[in-house]
Amino acid sequence: MSLPQKTREYRLPKVDGFHNLTLQEAPIPKLKSTEVLVKVYAVSLQYRDLIVAKGQYPLGQKENPVPGSDMAGEIIAVGEEVKGWKVGDRVCANFAVDHIFGDATEEIKMTGLGAPIDGVLTEYKVLPAHSLVHIPEHLDYEEASTLPCAALTAYNALLGGNPLKGGDIVLVQGTGGVSIFGLQIAVASGATVIATSSSDKKLEIAKRLGATHVINYKTTPDWDKEVLKITNGRGVDHVVEVGGPGTIMKSVNATRYGGQIHVIGFVAGQADVSQLPGMILGKAIHVRGILIGSRTQFEDMNRLLSAVKLKPVVDKVFDFEHVQEAYEYQWSQHHVGKVVVKVSKN
Question: If residue 282 lies in a helix (H) or strand (E), which one and from where to where?
Answer without folding.
Answer: helix 276-282
